[in-house]
Amino acid sequence: MDSRQFGICVIWCKIPKMEIDLPEEPKFVTYAKQDRVTGTKRTSGEIRESTLSTGAVLLKFDQPPDTPKEYVEQWRTLEDKGFHVTDDGCIFPYKYYWSSFGKGHKNKGHQRSYAFFYQRRLDNQLKVTKLGWPATEQISHLCHRENCVNPLHLVVEAQWCNQRRNFCGLGGQCTCGMKPPCLHTYKNWVYFLDDVCEEAVELVCTEREVLDALSELSTTFSFRVLKKTSYAKEDQKAQARKKRKASARKSSPKGSISKHKSSKSEAPVSDD
């Protein structure tokens, strides 16, 4: 599994003061773009099938008390598409919700996670300290993996605190002095030579492995590992609706589609 898929980018560099030779990132064509080209919309079931085929698992978290309906719906939309779970406890959602994927949804996975589990959004009002340090609220990743949505790896703090965590790891352990401490050391891959520039990420796929990797999380937020067929009935109904709509479009005279439909409504209904 390519570690770049989960925001743990391994980049190779030449000696400083020489031209940096970076590997070409694989071009990612969004499903939304594919759908616009083909005139089809992917259902949640089709997206789920694709993520499960790459080692994802289905997790169902219990709703925390007093969580607003909006936060619940946004989390469930992300949750039902599956997660990739690492052996050290990171949880990565479908790529459309990644923080590092600029073409994805503006409401990123870690923001949905914090809202669902801790019942709050960020205060985006611009703030500074008496010394002029940026103090606007941000969500820091204690694991230093920006696409992770494990709520135990997230903490809200001032922007300067988040930035300070980027200077952490001398001696192989958290040295930034922030509380709570970082779970992993920070690495800026651009400045690493190729002999020390690798970080292995192992995915866990079985129920037992997932429960072991997320044992600490399960003591705070209850969840279940679902069977891959848990959404089978809903997926069959969605596929039937999709076929009916496709058939109706083919049988309708050209130009009879309602003009009031905006381009926004043509985006994949499942990527909300």
Lateral strand order in the biggest sheet:
3-2-6
Low-confidence stretches: 9-39, 257-271
Estimate the strand proportion. Answer: 5-15%
Alpha-carbon distance between the termini? Answer: 27 Å
**What characterizes the major β-sheet?**
3 strands, antiparallel
What structural class do the secondary elements suggest?
A: alpha+beta
Shape: globular
Number of helices: 8
What is the β-strand count? 7
Radius of gyration: 21 Å
| Share in helix | 25-40%
How would you state the average pLDDT, rounded?
Answer: 78
The tally of domains stands at 1
SSE series: HHEHEEHEEHEHHEH
Any key phrases for this structure?
272 residues, alpha+beta, three-stranded antiparallel β-sheet, 7 strands, disordered C terminus
